[in-house]
Specification:
The protein has about 120 residues and is mostly beta strands. It contains no helices and eleven strands.
Length: about 120
């Protein structure tokens, strides 16, 4: 069982930056695919950034490519969010699974372990 706890959410301004952290109960090296998802009320949880710890591959949704960076080390997973936009507002969840990251982009159903989420609100 992998327990995930997100932190670092809050309020930001358009063009600003936020950094999200996800603390795992064990080394993230043991889980193969790590990811960040975003959800807004009334919509499906969507994947935005992923890291395959075996292939050493980063994957990004087009909506965040060039602005967000996923990284990890030890028990931690991070999401550096630059160039914030109001449409980045939502609840952000980190996720982990033992399997490799599906190409071209993992799906919500691929992940077994989830954090409780941290809210990000971007004002214009």
């Amino acid at each position: 069982q992998v327990r995930l706890v997100e932190s670092g959410g809050g309020s930001g301004q358009t063009g600003g930056s936020l950094r999200l952290s996800c603390d795992a109960s064990e080394s993230t090296q043991r889980t193969h695919c790590l990811g960040w998802f975003r959800q807004v009320p009334g919509k499906e949880r969507e994947g935005i950034a992923f890291f395959d710890t075996v292939a050493r591959r980063e994957l990004y949704d087009e909506s965040v490519k060039g602005r967000f960076t996923i990284s990890h080390g030890g028990n931690m997973l991070f999401l550096q969010m630059n160039g914030l936009k109001p449409e980045d507002t939502g609840m952000y969840f980190c996720a982990a699974d033992w399997g490799g990251c599906r190409l071209p982009q993992p799906r919500k159903s691929d992940f077994q372990y989830w954090g409780q989420g941290t809210q990000v609100t971007v004002s214009s």
